[in-house]
Amino acid sequence: TLYIGTMGRCSIQIVMGPAGSGKSTYCKAMQEHAQTMAGPRRRQIHVANLDPAAEVFQYDPLFDVRELISVTEVMKELGLGPNGALVYSMEYLLENLDWLRDSLDDMDDDEYILLDCPGQLELYTHVPIMKSILDSLKMWGYEGHMVSVFCVDAAFLVDLPKFLSGSLVSLSAMVALELPHVNVLTKADLMPESDVESILSQSATQLWHQERDRLYNSAQREQQQLNNNNWNPDQADDEIRDASSAALAATRPRKDERLTDALCQLLEDYSMVSFIPLNIQEEDSVQHVLSTVDHAIQYGEDLEVRVAEDDALDATAASSFGGDH
Fold this sequence. Notes:
With about 325 residues, the protein is α/β, with parallel strands linked by helices. It is built from twelve helices and six strands. The chain has a six-stranded parallel sheet with strand order 2-3-1-4-5-6, sandwiched between helices. Strand 4, helix 6 and strand 5 form a beta-alpha-beta unit. The protein is globular and about 75 Å long.
């Protein structure tokens, strides 16, 4: 029995995020978790590589863009640097999309694949290469079967500027690609669970105010320590004078704080960015992320229909068998 209304198209996760954010580890975790699932939701998850600059995988790719072109070859033959070679390689893929279409069309409509994409964010924002590739997939009939998964390293949580930057880049990619979108906080197993929950339970504005207060209080303590030592600005060396100037400056409101306030307020007012923590050491955590992504494209609804139909056919066959005897 075929899925109802799938139009012969597999389900696709577009896995993206900054370099080093754990995209390949995410793909491996999803693939291995699917093999342990029981019952009607058991499935095989394939992974394919769309990063021409990739070197080592933790998974066995179903197909690999490096079979078409690789950054190493481009750098060697054209003398380009790493970034230029990557952009050239992705433009080459864009000009030869039949390779990608044939690879995807070879899959059955009930199959599920993760596309491990490049980490250079300019491909999603400044240079519309990924947008053009995804637009082509939509024209091929995959619209409604694709979801973007944006990975951000959990280590960003302890550095507020990086966390805000990651949130804004995620928002930019979501707006640019125009797909159902899920943000995943990878490597959460490397941080205390209580810290992750505490930070994610607060708004961007609350986190920024806490960071601002921390910086202010730290600067005040440094200035107080200098004052207690009765230091003389005229006799102090350059290092001490610089420390004092920095401490005083940190206690004064800065113009750029208004921009940070506005960005935090934007993220908070529209609730446009939220993260799901992923702990690859816990099956419940992996399943929660997978279920959230599945829900974004309604994956599994047709599966339940198919299972019900198969069960009905099995019951009919058993009844007929029993009647003959």
